[in-house]
Amino acid sequence: MCRSIKTLRPPYSEDVTNDDVRAAALQYVRKISGFRAPASHNAEAFDRAVEEIARSTAALLDSLEVRGSRAS
Question: For 66, phi and psi rounded to 5 degrees?
C-alpha cells in the first residue's frame, strides 16, 4: 500500500524539508486509514489528519535533543 516511512531525525537524515515531513504524515494516514486516496466524503478528514500529523511531526523534530545537542 505504501512505502516505509523513513527516519527524519539527525543523524539519520539531514536537511529535512516540509515536503519530507508531509510525505511521512501522508504515508502514516494512508497506512492507518487503509485508504491510498479517500472517497470524496472522507477527503476533508483525511487531509486534516495529514496536516495535523505533519505539524506534530515538525514540532517533535524541532524539540528533540540528539546526544546533548538540540536537533533542528
Answer: -115, 120
